Amino acid sequence: MTGFIGVHIGAGCHSEKLQTRYERICRLACKKGIEAIRSGKSAVDAVAIATVVLEDSQYTNAGLGSSLTWDGEVECDASLMDGDKLGFGAVGAVSRIKNPILAAHRLCLEQYNHLSLNRVPPCFLVSAGAEKWALEKGLEIVEPHSLITEKSLKVFKKYKKRAELSSERNEGEPKVVHVTLKFVEIISILICCL
Questions:
Q1: Spatial contact of 6 and 34, defined as CB atoms under 8 Å apart
Q2: What is the pLDDT of residues 100-149, one digit of tens each?
């Protein structure tokens, strides 16, 4: 069987100085996904395993160290689709699930379970409801502040200040924020053949 696993470091702009580190993280994620496939796990399992590597790295925009909301909070999203069985699972705006992809993975797998009274299992949960469900399923729940890194907080403060200054200069005009980024956008997609 041939195929590939492709990953990237997350949405947004990323420092060109850290490109080697980004590539190392992406290679590790691909490697873990390939190992999962070779050990007999499904493609859906491999995607979740590879994504956990990305979520656990403070250098990606996923999970630990991800971009913060306007209020300086962590809110992560994750989704997963099984192309063979057409199952889907997703979580949104979660702050306490250590690895949101594991919740999305679990929701996807539970689509194949039949519930009593012809009920349909949930496929997309958000915020506190998603966190409660994840806790009930035994997934790791953490304090939101543990997902905020020094780097993500520094970047948040920098760009929030720029946005606020821009808004102050435009009093009376629509609050459109123009921020020039001094980073090179890198889409680090590594394709690893199986």
A1: no
A2: 999 999 999 999 888 999 898 999 999 999 999 999 999 999 999 999 99
Query: What whole-number distance in Å separates Cα of residue 101 and Cα of residue 90?
Result: 8
Is 70 in contact with 85 (CB distance < 8 Å)?
no
DSSP category for residue 66? P
Backbone angles phi, psi at 86, to 5 degrees: 65, 30
CB of 99 closer than 8 Å to CB of 29: no
Q: Please give the Cα distance from 175 to 87 (Å, whole number).
A: 41
Torsion 83-87-91-97 (CA) sign: negative
Q: Output the CA–CA distances (angstroms, integers) from residue 56 to 33, 49, 132, 162, in the order listed.
A: 15, 11, 21, 29
Instruction: Identify the DSSP state of 131.
Output: H
Task: Note whether 45 and 36 are within 8 A (CB).
Answer: yes
Site of tokens 């069985």? 85
